[in-house]
Amino acid sequence: MHYQLIEDQNSLNLLCEQLAKAKVLAIDTEFVRTRTLYAKLGLLQVCDGEQLALIDPLAIDDLTPFWQLLTNAGITKVLHACSEDLEVFLTAGNCKPVNLIDSQIMMSFLGHGLSLGYAAMVKHYTDIELDKSESRTDWIKRPLTEKQLAYASADVDHLFSIYPKLLAEITQAGFLAYAQQETQSMIDKKFTPINDSEMYLNIKMSWRLNPKQLNTLKYLASWRFQQAQKRDLPIGFVAKDHTLMALAQSNPATVNAMSMLEGAEELDIRHKGKAMLAVLTQADKAEVSSYPTKINRLDEYPGYKQIFKQVKAFLVKSSEQNNLAIENIASKKQINQFLTWQFDLNDARNNADKVDLISGWRNALFGQTLLEFAKQGYK
After folding, report:
1. Which of 3, 7, 42, 136 is deepest in the core (most CB within 10 A)?
2. Which domains does the chain have, with CATH numbers?
3. 327 among known catalytic residues
4. What is the DSSP string of 165-211?
5. Are 57 and 188 in contact (CB under 8 A)?
């Protein structure tokens, strides 16, 4: 299908008025994220089966009409592997889509693995080999070439024509609701505001620290994230994890003492030493009662390895009974999330609704029997 390039406000308004009548829209984005925290939106692609449009967000001031399509509950939006597209919708439009489904998730429930690429899906359904030579394009650079625009248009052209077949297959298999819930879960996670006071929990080896050191790490990680947001930099560009760990462990009193620490990055100290020293001073003033509790490691829980194996075996059996691949049922991370909750490590008991294995469609399939199995001591 030939595309139209939308480069002015009136054309966008008119296009979105027409697209608002559609039942299904295939959507994609092109963006650039190299030295920034947030992706920079370079192009929006949309197809309703009758028209295919490429919208230039650099040429149009107000993308509100397009964001309104995303929040229109009467239109099904289909995207492939939309995790990063969601970030773009959040940062560029502060727009949380509704009635959206991810075709990669749909494919996973049909036995194609969790991360089937768009080109592989197109090949599966149409036997067409897509040209991927423009995948590393700088989508912010103008003008875009004819070849780049043709590449971008293919991303929604095939998606629109494949979707009815995919929908019919997954409906027949009985997994449509699961794919919808998995997509919604991803959307909800992406749109949950980041709590910068919990960023320290993402730093590897933080379990080695005592409460006072954890408090220092908490302050440093929070400061780093705020800096990254303010300056639109990847957090590692502000300061490296191992620098924060070294400072939290030693709590140096001067910038010079910082530079002597093993594990502290020289460039981090040179450029951010004074700022981080101020953060250490602030952390020192915190009340002892406000310190985080020491992090308990799941793999040090008595019998963890054996219990993990038993839960995995239980889930493999459940997946077979329900004609699903084990990777759809549970990842290692999800099993660990369940065990952390079950053993009540690090106050996990307060978050039952966030435990995937006993929420949503998984809970309906096997949640209660899993809890019974756990109660009986995994026999």
Report:
1. 42
2. 3-190 (3.30.420.10), 196-290 (1.10.150.80), 298-375 (1.10.150.80)
3. no
4. HHHHHHHHHT-HHHHHHHHHHHHHHHTSPP-GGGGGGGSTTGGGS-H
5. no
- Extract the tokens encoding 37: 């925290």
Distance from C-alpha of 76 to C-alpha of 22, rounded to nearest angstrom: 9
Annotated catalytic, 28?
yes
**Nearest in space to 30 (alpha carbons), one of 67, 82, 85:** 85
pLDDT in tens, 31-41: 999 899 999 99
State pTM to two decimals. 0.94
Q: Which helix (H) or strand (E) holds 317?
A: helix 304-321
Which of the following is catalytic: 56, 102, 155, 268? Answer: 155
Active-site annotation holder among 28, 56, 241, 268: 28
Task: Compute mean pLDDT per 10 residues along the chain, 379 residues long, and list them.
Answer: 96 98 98 93 98 98 97 98 97 97 98 95 96 88 95 97 98 98 97 96 96 98 98 96 98 96 96 98 97 94 95 96 96 96 86 87 96 83
Backbone angles phi, psi at 174, to 5 degrees: 85, 20
CA 195 vs CA 93, 225, 228, 352: distances in Å: 21, 10, 14, 19
Residue 30 annotated among the catalytic residues of the structure: yes
In three-state secondary structure terms, 29 is strand
Who's near 132: CB < 8 A, 6+ residues apart? 119
